[in-house]
Design brief:
The complex is a heterodimer of chains A (about 350) and B (about 190). Chain A has about 350 residues and is mainly alpha-helical. Helix content of chain A is about 70%, strand content about 0%. Chain A has one domain. A two-stranded antiparallel sheet of chain A has the order 1-2. In chain A, α5 packs parallel to α13. The longest helix of chain A is centred in the N-terminal third of the chain and has 37 residues. Chain B has about 190 residues and is an alpha+beta fold. In chain B, about 30% of the residues lie in helices and about 15% in strands. The relative contact order of chain B is 0.15. Classes of the chains: A mainly alpha (about 350), B alpha+beta (about 190). At the A-B interface, α1 and α12 of A face α2 of B.
Chain lengths: ~350, ~190
C-alpha cells in the first residue's frame, strides 16, 4: 500500500518536474532562441551572471523574477473573482492531462509491476480531450471578465475556434481507436512495438489532421486568431499582467508538450525504438538480472519517449515560425469544409480496410 | 454580409494541396536554422563562413555608417591644433533650431591665423535636429556632421557641449570633408 503510494508520488513528482520544472521554462527560451537563429538574428543573450550569459539561458530566471515583482493589475469594471480565476482554469487542465499520458511501458522492478503512467484509465484518450476542452472555459472567462473589447473579441474567437476544431480532433482519433481497438493510452503504446504498426503508417492522413487540429486547439500560429497581436492587441489576455499572464503562457507551453506527447503515443510508436523490440533489449541486458535489465529498459524507454516528444516540440516551433496567420474565415473554412469531411472519409476508409483485412 | 475580393491568383494543384507548400516553407526556415546553428564548423575548418546573421552586439560593435549619414555636428581641429572656425556666425543663423551659440572674439595674433576666433562655441544636442544646414552654411570647413549618434544622457544640461568637447581632429573628418566638397560644390572654383 505504502509502496504503491510512494511509486505514484514519484511518478507525479517526475511529471511535474519534467513539465513545469523543465519544459515550460526552457521552451520560452527555445522559442526565442530558435526563432532568432531561424530569422538570421542572435536572440536573447543579455541577461548575465558575473559576465556569463550561458546562451541566454538566464533570461528564464530574469523573466520569472520580472513576473513575480510586476504589479498584478485588475482593470476597473472587471469581474475580480473570475478575472483571478481564469488563468487557473486555463493552467490546471493543461497539467491534468499528464495524469493519463504514459511515458514508458510496464517493468518488473523488485518483484513489483511498475506501470509508467500516473493513472491508467480505460478511457485515457477521452479523458485527455475532455480535460483539454475544459481549458477553453479559462480563455473565454478571461476575455469576458476583463471588461475590454479586444479581450472579448479574442475570447469569442477562442470559443468558435475550439468548437470547430474539437470536432475534427475527436473524429480523427476515432480512426486510431479503430485500428488499435483500445482507448487506453498504455495499450495503444504497447501495440506499436512493430515499426510498421506505428500510427503514422496505419493512419497517415489522421496524423496530419490531428497535428493541424491540435495546433489550432493550442491557439498558436498559424491559428492564433484569438490572440492576434496585429488585430486584437493581445486577445483574451490583454488585461493580464504579472504572474497571471505568466500562467497563461505556461499553459500554452505545457499544452505544446501535451500535444507532442499524444502525437508520439498515438502515431509515432510511443516509447518503442524502431526495429528493436522490448524482448531484444531485455535479452541484451540479461546479465544484470531481472530488476537490473528492467531498470535499464525503463531508462531507455523514457529517454526514447522524451526524445520523440522533443522532436515534435521542435516541429511545432518550426511551424509556428514558418507560417503566416490564417484569416478568420479561412480558419472556419479549413475546419468545417476541409478537415471535417476528410476526417469522416478517414473513418470510412479505415473501417472498409479493417473489414477487408479481417 | 461578407464580400470577397476578386484576386487573379491561379493556384496550381500542387499549391492547393497546402501540406506540400507548408513543408517547403518549413524546409526554408530549417535550412536557415541549421545553417546558422552549425555554420561555425566549416569556418573552423578554414572555409567560408556560412552564418548569415546580420545582428551586431550594439554597444560593443557598431555598424559602419554610410558617409552621407548625419550624426552629431562637430568642430574640425586643424593641423595647427586650432579650430577652423572663424566665428562668422553663419551656422548660427542657418540653424533652424537655434541650437548653436557662438561668442566671437577678436584675434590677438596667437589664437588663429585670421581676424576672429570663437571664444565659446556651444551646441545643444537636446535641441539640434541634425539637419546639416550648419555644415552647408560654413564657409571655412569648420563644422561637420560626424557619424557618431549615441549621445543619450540622463541630464539635459549635459547635452550642451562646449568647444573642448566638440573639437575633433581634421584627419578623422577627411571622408566627410571630401563628400561635402563634392556635395555642396564648395571650393570648386
Amino acid at each position: 500500500m505504502i509502496v504503491d503510494l510512494a511509486i505514484t508520488l514519484a511518478k507525479v513528482f517526475f511529471i511535474l518536474a519534467v513539465t513545469v520544472g523543465f519544459f515550460a521554462p526552457v521552451l520560452t527560451w527555445v522559442e526565442r532562441k530558435q526563432s532568432a537563429i531561424m530569422q538570421d538574428r542572435i536572440g536573447a543573450n543579455r541577461a548575465d551572471i558575473m559576465g556569463f550569459t550561458a546562451l541566454g539561458l538566464f533570461h528564464i530566471i530574469a523573466d520569472a523574477a520580472k513576473m513575480f515583482f510586476k504589479e498584478d493589475f485588475i482593470p476597473d469594471g472587471a469581474n475580480k473573482v473570475l478575472h483571478t480565476l481564469a488563468p487557473v482554469i486555463a493552467l490546471v487542465p493543461a497539467l491534468l492531462t499528464f495524469a493519463v499520458i504514459p511515458f514508458g511501458g510496464q517493468y518488473n522492478l523488485f518483484g513489483k509491476e511498475v506501470n509508467l503512467v500516473i493513472s491508467d484509465l480505460d478511457v485515457g484518450l477521452l479523458f485527455v480531450f475532455a480535460i483539454a476542452s475544459l481549458a477553453t472555459y479559462g480563455y473565454v472567462v478571461a476575455g469576458w471578465s476583463s471588461n475590454n473589447n479586444w479581450s472579448l473579441l479574442g475570447s469569442m474567437r477562442t470559443a468558435s475556434q475550439m468548437v470547430s476544431y474539437e470536432v475534427t480532433l475527436g473524429l480523427t482519433i476515432i480512426g486510431v481507436l479503430m485500428v488499435y481497438g483500445s482507448m487506453q493510452l498504455t495499450q495503444i503504446g504497447a501495440a506499436q512495438e512493430n515499426f510498421w504498426h506505428w500510427g503514422f503508417f496505419l493512419q497517415p492522413l489522421g496524423f496530419f489532421m490531428f497535428m493541424t487540429a491540435s495546433i489550432a486547439e493550442n491557439k498558436r500560429i498559424p491559428f492564433d486568431n484569438p490572440e492576434a497581436e496585429s488585430e486584437l492587441v493581445a486577445g483574451y489576455f490583454t488585461e493580464y499582467s504579472g504572474l497571471k499572464f505568466g500562467m497563461f503562457f505556461m499553459a500554452e507551453f505545457i499544452e505544446i508538450v501535451t500535444i507532442a506527447a499524444i502525437v508520439t503515443i498515438l502515431f509515432f510508436g510511443a516509447w518503442h525504438i524502431p526495429f528493436v523490440t522490448t524482448a531484444t533489449l531485455l535479452s541484451i541486458f540479461d546479465f544484470l538480472g531481472t530488476t537490473g535489465s528492467n531498470l535499464v529498459l525503463m531508462f531507455i524507454h523514457v529517454g526514447v519517449f522524451f526524445t520523440k516528444v522533443l522532436i515534435f516540440i521542435f516541429i511545432q516551433m518550426t511551424i509556428r515560425w514558418s507560417l503566416p496567420r490564417f484569416r478568420y474565415d479561412q480558419i472556419m473554412k479549413l475546419g468545417w469544409k476541409i478537415l471535417l469531411p476528410l476526417a469522416l472519409a478517414n473513418i470510412v476508409v479505415t473501417g472498409v480496410v479493417i473489414l477487408a483485412l479481417s | 454580409m461578407a464580400y470577397y475580393v476578386k484576386r487573379n491568383i491561379k493556384m496550381t494543384w500542387w499549391e492547393r494541396m497546402y501540406i506540400l507548400a507548408i513543408l517547403h516553407g518549413m524546409l526554408v526556415t530549417l535550412r536557415h536554422f541549421f545553417g546558422n546553428l552549425f555554420g561555425f564548423i566549416p569556418f573552423l575548418l578554414g572555409q567560408k563562413k556560412h552564418r548569415e546573421i546580420f545582428t551586431l552586439y550594439y554597444p560593443e560593435e557598431t555598424a559602419k555608417y554610410p558617409i552621407a549619414y548625419r550624426g552629431r555636428p562637430v568642430l574640425a581641429l586643424n593641423e595647427d591644433n586650432l579650430p577652423n572656425c572663424v566665428a562668422c556666425g553663419l551656422c548660427e543663423i542657418a540653424c533652424p533650431a537655434y541650437c548653436i551659440d557662438i561668442i566671437p572674439g577678436e584675434n590677438s595674433g596667437k589664437q588663429n591665423k585670421v581676424e576672429r576666433y570663437p571664444i565659446a562655441f556651444t551646441i545643444d544636442y537636446a535641441v539640434c535636429i541634425f539637419c546639416g544646414f550648419c555644415e552647408e552654411a560654413c564657409p571655412e570647413e569648420a563644422i561637420y556632421m560626424s557619424d557618431n549618434c549615441d549621445i543619450s544622457m540622463l541630464d539635459r544640461k549635459k547635452m550642451k557641449y562646449n568647444m573642448e568637447q566638440l573639437l575633433v581632429p581634421v584627419a578623422e573628418l577627411k571622408d566627410r570633408m571630401d563628400f561635402c566638397r563634392d556635395m555642396y560644390g564648395k571650393w570648386n572654383y
